[in-house]
């Protein structure tokens, strides 16, 4: 097996994940992994600088894991109070301002899309969006942050602001938005990736998306080691990983950006969606291709209205759009076969991702070996699902 090139940050991210995972299993698993890693670094022909950095990163992440385990009362849980301090004042204003132009149900939906607080939604709305495969729109993540990033960038270009100054204007805005949303793992990932990618592209003149994703994972896991078992962290990163592994290949077969993006995200996050939710939305492709553009239109207008204080009149355009979205999702939620119940364990997840990586464009293997081996691995995955 030969990787297409040497991406040190990707290997460092793998080391961090395996280190935390082995430590969570048992102390002797962590010792065995440390011995294996040390031998690999000593006897493989890797750059000396990479070996030094790998050892430093391993020590740092294990120290963070031990400190978190010893001094954090519940390291698995990351929460925030949306009603405290400046955040509470702004969020209460935003919800009140939206309620002036929207119905109560639509106000709660827009508020959730803007700030990721699903507690204001009724169970029925959350259920309908989950069955329709659109639960991701209710969690502030890369879709929302990239939309805000693009809107601010466009505005700066219209104002003829020099490109090298864009990052220093956008960064505080994104960080403040992350603060309002409570710095959940998904928005930490999205904000960090946007800022790192923009900095690398404009100041280093090179930006490798897979390396940016890996660096973001390394930083988050060093600060929050227990994020490795968080649904928010795993779903957020697996969606982006699916885009990197599958999007280009799918787009060549299905030349539609929306369809290729949804299929790539689904393939990337599929095992974790099954693991955490126990079902797969069968109508997700149709709902996302049709409804997500409408919701992003509502997101842009809502952000404009809340951010400028004077553009609330545009919310009259959002009301019928949201009514249509809620009507369609509720109709999908009433279909008995809209979801397919599936369950599997951690072993199946590992097998799935090994097969996915094997079929990706990042691994060069002879076709007569690659495809039969992938078939065997996916067969094993289906067997594990059936058990």
Structure at a glance:
The chain is mainly α and 387 residues long. It has helices at 8-25, 27-43, 48-71, 85-99, 104-115, 123-131, 142-158, 163-180, 185-203, 209-223, 231-253, 257-277, 284-308, 315-333, 346-359, 367-386, and strands at residues 2-3, 279-281, 339-341, 363-364. The longest helix is centred in the last third of the chain and has 25 residues, at 284-308.
Question: Helices, strands, pairings?
Answer:
Layout: E1 2-3, H1 8-25, H2 27-43, H3 48-71, H4 85-99, H5 104-115, H6 123-131, H7 142-158, H8 163-180, H9 185-203, H10 209-223, H11 231-253, H12 257-277, E2 279-281, H13 284-308, H14 315-333, E3 339-341, H15 346-359, E4 363-364, H16 367-386
Antiparallel strand pairs: 1-4, 2-3
Helix pairs in contact: 1-2, 1-3, 1-10, 4-5, 6-14, 7-8, 7-9, 8-9, 9-10, 10-11, 11-12, 12-15, 13-14, 15-16
What does the model show?
This protein is an all-alpha fold. It has 16 helices and 4 strands. Helix 7 runs parallel beside helix 9 and helix 11 packs antiparallel against helix 12. The mean pLDDT is 88.
Number of strands: 4
β-sheet strand percentage: under 5%
Summed over residues and divided by their number, the pLDDT gives a mean of 88
What count of helical segments does DSSP give? 16
Note the main attributes of this structure:
mainly alpha, two-stranded antiparallel sheet, 387 residues
